Amino acid sequence: MEEYGKYEKYKKRKVTIDIVKANVFAVILLVVAAVALMVPFFIIWGGRVSFGQSLSGITGLLVAIPAILIGIAVHELVHGITWACFAPGGWRSIRFGVIWKLLTPYCHCNEPLRVPGYTLGGIMPCVVLGIAPAIAALCTGNLWLLVWGIFFISAAAGDIWIVWLLRKERRDSLVLDHPSEAGFYVLEGDAKE
To answer: Which domain range does residue 183 map to?
Structure first.
């Protein structure tokens, strides 16, 4: 919290999410996204999708596992790129790491951002890695692209929850990423008296 010393003049309101509940939400989101996207996919492409050309067995695993790991790293990179666009310090404000006990990579912005910038950075991985590929899959009939999109929509469950919590905040409020928990601080008022 040392790096946050310069923000002591503000009143901080902590907003975090429970990781266990976020994981439950991710499973629910996975089921909802799968149903919401697979039903129209199979209505549009059902008779024309060749499942024989899909990767299976060990070959599928050899492709899927590295692809998912790269996708997870790209997810964090997309957070960083977006937040760096809004942070006064740009890339100097962005940190990447892994919480090893949870095997969870993270991206952290150590400068406060206005609500729209923080929100955009929070939701962009879902859009880039989840929603856009799912839409592309619906347009092209690519089943694996659809599965990718569904997986990365679900992987953004915590981000979606954070963005949902931000909807109640004033657009001009400052949001400071929490340094060690899933959440943020809202910096309130001009300064403590």
So the answer is: 2-44+55-188
